[in-house]
Amino acid sequence: MELTVEGRKVFAATGGKAFDPSLPAIVFVHGAAADHTVWKLQTRYFAWHGRGVLAIDMPGHGRSDGPCVPTIEGLADWLIAVLDAAGLARAALVGHSVGSLVTLEAAARYPDRVEDLALLGCAFPMRVNDELLDAARDNDALANQLTNAWGYGRAAQRGRHTMPGLWMLKGGMRLLEDAGDGVLYNDMNACHIYEGGERAARALSCRTLSIMGEKDIMTPLKQARKTAAQIDGVREVVIPAAGHIMMDEAPDKTLDALRDFLPQPT
Amino acid sequence: MADPKYLKFDTLSLHAGQKPDATYGARAVPIYQSTSFVFQDTDHAAALFNLERAGHIYSRISNPTVAVLEERIAALEGGVGAVATASGQAALHLGVATLMGAGSHIVSSASIYGGSHNMFAHTLPRFGIEATFVDPRDPKAYAAAIQPNTRLLFGETLGNPGLEVMDVAAVAAVAHDHGIPLMIDNTFATPYLFRPFEHGCDIIMHSATKFLGGHGVAVAGVLVDSGQFDWEGSGKFPTMTEPYAGYHGLDFAEEFGPGAFIMRARTEGLRDFGAAMSPQTAFYILQGVETLPVRMQRHVENTREIVKYLCGHEAVAWVIYPELPDHADHNLAKALMPDGVGAIFSFGVKGGRGAGAKFIESLEIYSHLANVGDAKSLIIHPASTTHQQMDAAALKAAGVGEDMVRMSVGLEDIRDLIDDLGGALRRSQR
Questions:
Q1: Which domains does chain B have, with CATH numbers?
Q2: Whether the Cβ atoms of residue B145 and residue B192 lie closer than 8 Å to each other
Q3: How big is the CA angle at B36 (ends B31 and B42), to the nearest 5 degrees?
Q4: Percent of chain A with pLDDT over 90
Q5: Chain B contact set for A171 (CB, 8 A)
Q6: Domains of chain A, earliest start first
Q7: Would you state the pLDDT for residue B21?
Q8: What is the pTM of this model?
Q9: ipTM, two decimals
């Protein structure tokens, strides 16, 4: 479905079912230079199990109008504007990587708007490797290569996707290639310069889940655990053998973790 | 400089799509000879059927052994996914049926496998899909033949049997200018020698019966999706971009993004048309794929030696192989396929059809049969076999002459192959 925020089109996939704002809502926020399709093996389940689902494309990503928003704080404000446009007073937020920082910041800034929070591949500070950041700034193809290779765990290099026949490394690369010039840099840099993680963590008042990949290279398990430890009452789930893009590498385990955390609709 | 450290082609040939069996630690890919797979509970069952979760339901739609092969070929071709089929022809049909329905049109190379030509020229018209055949060497001919209802451009990396080398990038540009995908049959080259996706091709099909298997024991096909065609931007493919009642209004491009085509091919095409590959067949083809790089090197080495021998033989009227300087596509072939232009070529035996027949019947090591890409050397007379259903005009357009002999060079000792050829050529001239 399409929403309008600040005069610009925002695309949100709804899990294959028309969005009903009267249902308890979950809003999914993707990672760097990605789009709503990264949630393909989680969103349909929730949409067909009594939830209103919005898997949004951030500004300048996927099917949403640009330009990109350069800061986590700006994206957090924009995310709440998306909830307004969708007629949602409250929603559960699920964010991955840069999306996890956006949802974290939004939950901290607008506690009355966020029911529950699930952070996937989240760590702060989320510093980006200098060489990767430089390559992304230059729109060098190396940036996509490194992001994809480091995003997926080593086990994913050999594949064996849960969805028969899909070769996830190339699927991930296609998303990066489809993103326009500057998109990856915008997202990477937003993570790199974000300083508000600890403050936001302390300010959280909602239930929070942290899903971590055991073999994550981008936000290593040790760092993700250190981050989670700063959140009161956080629930932790570590997905064995998974890298940073756990919702693609281990879609069922990711879905199960979310399903177990988010209250079942009555 | 940081290195992404992706696994290389030879490693992927052996490992892509597989992890050692978690239960018993089997190193080889197990054959999951089971029609169906047990659900965890009723919710799991319903979620699988509605594509809310991924997994195996029934082996017509997917199977764990077949899925290893599918991922492996997708990895080797550089695609986002693949669907294995009962044959190469099933892969071609699945690709067409996933993209279009009655009232659609295909522009195809005129120089293609006879079975593919039959499908386009004689069979698909019964279902309302027409085709126009053009010179594969002429991208402008492809452009000129495009109609408002054209939904696919098609060709073979190496034409059959004339070995015309397709300028994939040029034809892909024509296709994309018109919002249409390009499908390539990459059977003759295999991804070891040529990777069409790197040149703009959108969909690849294989007869995996040939070099991918390499042993001639199983008929098989594979359809591979590059994930790079913009279905939404094209606006010509409602199967990709409009709600599908077969899955409660699922919009494949919206839900699956780069994997839209291959997901539709599986969830509709295999589900409803049912031309699935058996797990036993997938196992056979996987045994071949594991050695594809080393086999293709030897295939090419032997081919080069035989072509050289035949070019110097007094009983040979002509030889067509793109690595020869007099081949019309020599420069293109060198640029696109520096590691070799395959192991199939054509030649004419002096004395016409009669001498050709005597030559074929005199061979002892080469097998006279309708196949290519086997570890064993094969030979055939296309005009009377693989291209028999074509009329004179179509044969001419495909470059099939009465004296043409097509050879698929195997892995035997080159000295034995040349000895056998020499003897048969001598007998053909008596």
A1: 9-289 (3.40.640.10), 292-428 (3.90.1150.10)
A2: no
A3: 135
A4: 97
A5: 80-81, 227, 257-259
A6: 2-261 (3.40.50.1820)
A7: 82
A8: 0.96
A9: 0.96
